[in-house]
Amino acid sequence: MFKKIVIFGVGLIGGSFALALKKAAAATHTVGVGRTAAPLARAIELGIIDSASSSDSDALATCLRDADLVLIAAPVAQTEAILEAIAPHLQAGTIVTDAGSTKTDVVAAARRALGAKIAQFVPGHPIAGRELNGPEAALSDLYLGKKVVLTPLPENAMDDVARVAAAWQQCGAIIHRLTPEQHDRVFASVSHLPHLLAYALVDDIARKPHADLLFQYAASGFRDFTRIAGSSPEMWRDIALANQTALLSELDAYMLQLTHLRSALAGGDGGALEAIFANAQQARQRWEISIEAAEKHHQEGGD
């Protein structure tokens, strides 16, 4: 499908994309671009990419020549600088996409950086990940059965959007579409807020004078709730700041919920506590059933 793909960031997200396309025989040559040489060398060693490039202007001009697709899989705060660097070397037939967890800020950055070439940028976000980082964390099946949200721009050609969708489908992903604004509201609630809560809980416990004792007795419930606190602090700092408005709204709503819980607990209101717990349990069970049904439908070859 693609003769040449260029990937900025060869860690978990970009590396898994490269491995999945190799496994599907959908890419002839994959070039990795990064800030430092060591991860690129490791990615070549692991067979994730075929060659590496530095990010200086001459090297970018060479690696972008005749590229079919460019994926930016770097922290969202780096997106604008990367787009500015590649803009002078971006050929007419090259499509650019990203894997950022926020979209309205990325679209604004792309408009500033690409100017008249904005039609070549198709924003995207794969809904998959692990708490591990770097090339060693990359998996060829990371996206299998997972959602990828595309947030196309009015300027995008339908064929370009279809090409980006096809690349992710070759990785085994299921394509969804939202507007950038819808995307950021949704993920502030179901992704960005949970990460903040996990980080806050672990940080709170770690700062207690008897933290060692507490961690000694933390078991599976604590592990499940806080798993995502093992994610990249740099990446989640950027995501939180990029989606500040929507995330503040979700934090305010959650703090109000905690106030209700505290009031019920302080008042010994077992009925109110149980009602909240029961509603949450039922909602989670419905969610699990819907997820299982969607995965089964995908495995059986449905769209």
Structural features, described:
The chain has 303 residues and is α/β, with parallel strands linked by helices. It has 2 domains: 2-177, NAD(P)-binding Rossmann-like Domain (Rossmann fold), CATH 3.40.50; 183-267, Orthogonal Bundle (6-phosphogluconate dehydrogenase C-terminal fold). The chain has helices spanning 12-23, 37-45, 57-64, 79-86, 104-114, 158-170, 180-206, 211-217, 220-226, 233-242, 244-266, 270-299, and strands spanning 2-8, 27-33, 51-53, 69-72, 95-98, 121-122, 124-126, 147-150, 174-177. The strands form 2 sheets. A 6-stranded parallel β-sheet has the order 3-2-1-4-5-6. Helix 4 (79-86) links the parallel strand 4 (69-72) and strand 5 (95-98). Helix 4 packs parallel to helix 5 and helix 7 packs across helix 11 (244-266). The two termini are 20 Å apart. The mean pLDDT is 94.
Q: What is the fold's blueprint, element by element?
A:
Elements: E1 2-8, H1 12-23, E2 27-33, H2 37-45, E3 51-53, H3 57-64, E4 69-72, H4 79-86, E5 95-98, H5 104-114, E6 121-122, E7 124-126, E8 147-150, H6 158-170, E9 174-177, H7 180-206, H8 211-217, H9 220-226, H10 233-242, H11 244-266, H12 270-299
Parallel strand pairs: 1-2, 1-4, 2-3, 4-5, 5-6, 8-9
Antiparallel strand pairs: 7-8
Helix pairs in contact: 4-5, 7-11
